[in-house]
Design brief:
By secondary structure, the chain is α+β, with helices and mostly antiparallel strands. It has a domain of about 80 residues. The chain is about 30% helix and about 35% strand. The strands form 2 sheets. It has a 4-stranded antiparallel β-sheet with strand order 3-4-6-5. The longest helix has 19 residues. The radius of gyration is 23 Å and the shape is elongated.
Length: about 120
């Protein structure tokens, strides 16, 4: 095996090209995650006042059920960070499908204490 650079990297042979494979795996991972997020996504939590919050869910499949589910999941994740759960106040749905075929729903909620499971 010959070395033709200052770092002693092999030219040809078994080790050639291996230093680039982790980057290609990273690219594949990023692309995979982006495709998953393309199916469903949420827009950041917004405080709308008086202890009430709002979040939007976007879904390219499942219609309003999918976008509402995505918004509710985001509300649960947000409230869980504070040891609470969301109490849903209402929904608003976008009437039209956007250029990407996605539907959007917004849920408003407030945080309430989580109740422990009792058996």
């Amino acid at each position: 095996m010959t070395h033709d650079n200052k770092e002693g990297m092999p030219r040809g042979g078994a080790g050639a090209g291996n230093r680039y494979k982790p980057m290609s795996k990273l690219k594949l991972l990023v692309l995979g995650l982006m495709s998953l997020l393309g199916a469903c996504a949420h827009v950041g939590i917004q405080e709308v006042g008086h202890g009430q919050y709002s979040v939007s869910g976007i879904s390219s499949s499942g219609g309003y059920h999918g976008s509402r589910e995505e918004a509710i999941e985001s509300a649960h994740e947000y409230c869980g960070r504070f040891g609470k759960r969301p109490a849903l106040d209402g929904f608003s749905d976008e009437a039209d499908v956007d250029a990407h075929g996605e539907r959007m729903s917004r849920v408003t909620f407030h945080r309430v204490p989580s109740q422990p499971l009792e058996f």
